[in-house]
Design goal:
Helices cover 36% and strands 21% of the residues. It is α+β, with helices and mostly antiparallel strands. The protein folds into five domains: 137 residues, no CATH class; 81 residues, no CATH class; 141 residues, Nucleotidyltransferase, domain 5; 85 residues, no CATH class; 137 residues, Substrate Binding Domain Of DNAk, Chain A, domain 1. The protein has a seven-stranded mixed β-sheet, sandwiched between helices. A five-stranded antiparallel β-sheet has the order 16-17-15-20-21. It is globular, with a radius of gyration of 32 Å. The protein starts with a helix and ends in a 16-residue tail after the last strand.
Length: 713
């Protein structure tokens, strides 16, 4: 903030000299005094404009990188301020419908302390840090004031709820409430995204905090990263949930909290309650999630009260993250002008995982652009946050090596060091060829007991004045490169599977915004791929793509099937192949083999997204039958015969509720016609029984002693 305070000092000096000159207007030295303040003004004004507009200024980068959009101009600030005013921002403040974070009651002002004329200013400046320089400075203040004043008249303010509550004058309310509040709203719009941590705090088994909370009560139990429990590849790597908490409940509590918060925010913003019954919900899920994980997510949404079991199945879409990103790239990256027939690889480098997949741009039967998956995707457990444990272990190991006879770094001390790495060091790391590359040593503060090590000028790692000095080359080779090499290997594997040239690589996700990662990918693949880029605001690709998927769920026309799917059924008994233990005889004396595995789509096949298979079976009209679905990840040329095979995994089961059929008795058979869809990322079942249709999606748990599905016709 040094630049800001220097400007503030210049401004104060300018005002003092201007007032002094005006007070001595008739003095023979007036021209001299006027020249002095004009000289300062000529220095101050350009610096102020540069400071307010230049978002890449290094002194401010740590603070403004989260708040400023690259396209910010004072012209756009004026237009956006006017739009907010026209849309009722001031009306909602004056009516009390929305309370500003800068608005204080009369009692608040009286309790602020200090001389009377400074009470209000003390309160205002206590909150001024919420507004970043650039939007709010001398120029921004004047722009927003002009936009607000035509709507904020003396007549509008007089007698309003805001005036009665605060007791402020018209000018005071304008300068200390309306202007900074509008500035904050515009800042919020320009924030790249607000990442809400997946954290919950429970006290006595009940949720009492969620998201970005700080220190909690000693008796409270915190839960974080619980979504990772749904990734079956991470079993054993994630701590168990406290209080015997189920993963579905934790996710449900989190979704409910963020949903209620979002509805409240939107209601305040648009000035009326949100009719949630008219909303469709799209949740992007990792491509590698199993059906069990997806079913858990759907059940958690229902449990949170966001949707109900009776809602149409497409009110909640669980969409593939890679498909959402592909749609985002196709929709927003028009400047790259990919033509039908060209293909592109998406590298989604996120916080915990890196996923890569190749899509080809096509044209559907209606002449509209669409996408098809060309190569099945790959993923690796790696990402932006995996850099943190690398750095933590590196610091711990080397400090212990330097100071063998000193108490090692504690967990809390290491946590503080990693925080510095995460917030200050990691975002600045770039390739040596980058003009912003800093050759100076990276300095990491250590506790005072680690004073100094012997070193010379050639050392790339040493301790001096209780600070760990680390050469940037060491940061790249020891911390970043091991993680980035995994990404490069993943991309290389995809390229080897393509039988033709790749046209483009799009790098998205939070880690995908790393300029160093982008440079490394270009270094390795630029001779094979013409276009390699990290689209602007690529960290928003999944979220924005999910919204687009909600509007157009079938933009991606074809997928590569990642598993073989089948269902459990009873088929004719074969003495030479079927064990006696699975033999069953029905009421008509016909002999069947239970637990047979019948496939309906094979791993590696390319299928339309609306692909389905017709099946027909019969059962007795006594109890609701259950259709059990299984997956097989092995060679599709050698399918298992039975669902009891260790290689098969049950993915879901549907209890098919038999309708009321007059004249049917328990010993009568019912013919059930069904369509099994590979619906979005879930499996959908459409059942028809004597012209009565019903749709099932996700997990439908059976009750005890339900019969298996009978004969396949």
């Amino acid at each position: 903030m040094d630049a800001y305070y220097k400007l503030d000092t210049l401004k104060k000096e300018y005002i003092q000299k201007k007032i002094y000159a005006e007070d001595n207007k008739y003095s023979r030295n007036f021209k001299k005094f006027k020249g002095e303040y004009k000289k300062i003004h000529n220095i101050y004004e350009p610096k102020l404009r540069e400071f307010c507009k230049l978002h890449t200024i290094e002194e401010q980068r740590p603070l403004i990188v989260k708040y400023f959009c690259e396209s910010f101009t004072f012209e756009s600030l004026a237009n956006r301020s006017k739009n907010l005013v026209k849309n009722g921002a001031i009306d909602r403040l004056l009516s009390g419908e929305f309370r500003s974070q800068f608005e204080y009651s009369k009692s608040d002002i009286e309790a602020a302390g200090g001389p009377a004329k400074y009470k209000l200013l003390n309160l205002f400046y206590a909150n001024k840090h919420r507004i970043m320089p650039g939007y709010y400075g001398q120029i921004g203040f004047e722009i927003i004031s002009k936009a607000a004043i035509y709507k904020f008249s003396h007549e509008a303010y007089k007698g309003s709820s805001a005036q009665k509550k605060t007791g402020l004058s018209h000018q005071q309310y304008l300068t200390t409430v309306i202007v900074p509040e509008i500035a904050c709203w515009i800042i919020a719009e320009d924030q790249a995204y607000s990442h809400v941590p997946t954290r919950l705090a429970y006290l006595n088994g009940k949720l009492f905090k969620w998201g970005a909370f700080g220190i909690v009560l000693k008796d409270a139990k915190t839960v974080s990263l619980f979504k990772l429990h749904l990734d079956e590849t991470k079993k054993g790597l994630i701590p168990e949930l406290p209080y015997g908490l189920e993963i579905e409940q934790a996710i449900s509590d989190y979704l409910r909290s963020i949903f209620e918060h979002t509805c409240t925010f939107l209601s305040r913003r648009i000035g009326k309650e949100i009719d949630t019954n008219k909303l469709r919900f799209c949740l992007p899920v990792p491509d590698g999630w199993t059906e069990k994980a997806r079913n858990t997510m759907r059940n958690a949404v229902i449990r949170a009260g966001i949707i109900s079991k009776e809602d149409p199945e497409d009110r909640l879409l669980l969409v593939s993250e890679s498909e959402a990103i592909a749609l985002y790239c196709e929709t927003f990256l028009v400047e790259y002008n990919l033509k039908p027939g060209q293909n592109f690889l998406i590298c989604d480098a996120g916080r915990f995982n890196v996923n890569v997949v190749v899509y080809r741009k096509t044209v559907d039967n209606n002449g509209k652009n669409s996408l098809m998956e060309e190569v099945a995707g790959d993923s690796v457990i790696s990402g932006y946050t995996t850099l943190d444990p690398h750095f933590r272990n590196f610091v711990s190991d080397n400090v212990n090596l330097f100071f063998k006879n000193v108490k090692p770094l504690t967990d809390r001390e290491l946590d503080n060091i990693v925080d510095i790495f995460t917030n200050d060091i990691k975002p600045r790391v770039c390739h040596p060829s980058n003009p912003h590359y800093d050759k100076d040593y990276i300095i990491i503060p250590l506790p005072e007991r680690f004073d100094e090590t012997e070193y010379d000028e050639e050392d790339k790692l040493f301790v001096a004045d209780s600070q760990l000095h680390m050469h940037p080359e060491l940061m790249l080779s020891e911390i970043f490169d091991p993680v980035i090499n995994q990404v490069l290997s993943l991309i290389d594997t995809q390229l080897k599977r393509i039988d033709r040239k790749l046209d483009a690589i799009f790098l998205v996700g939070e880690f995908g915004q790393s300029t160093y990662l982008l440079h490394k990918i270009k270094d390795k693949f630029s001779t094979e791929v013409i276009l390699i880029c990290a689209p602007h605001r690529g960290e928003m690709a999944v979220v924005r793509g999910a919204v687009l998927m909600g509007l157009n769920p079938q933009f991606v026309k074809q997928r590569i099937i990642r598993r073989t799917y089948g269902y459990e059924c009873s088929l004719e008994f074969d003495k030479s192949l079927d064990p006696e233990g699975l033999r069953a005889v029905d009421q008509n004396g016909e002999v069947y083999c239970n637990n047979r595995f019948r496939s309906y789509v094979l791993k590696g096949e390319i299928r339309d997204v609306d692909y389905y298979v017709d099946i027909s079976f019969k059962c007795y009209y006594s109890k609701n039958p259950v259709l059990k679905l299984y997956a097989y990840d092995g060679n599709p040329d050698h399918l298992p015969r039975f669902t009891t095979d260790d290689a098969t995994k049950k993915v879901t089961e549907f209890e098919i509720k038999l309708p009321n059929l007059p004249g049917k008795g328990p010993n009568d058979t019912v013919v059930i016609d069904a369509k099994l869809y590979l619906y979005q990322t879930e499996i959908k079942l459409e059942v028809e029984i004597e012209n009565i249709k019903k749709i099932y999606t996700g997990s439908h748990k059976k009750v005890d002693n339900m019969p298996f599905i009978g004969e396949i016709r």
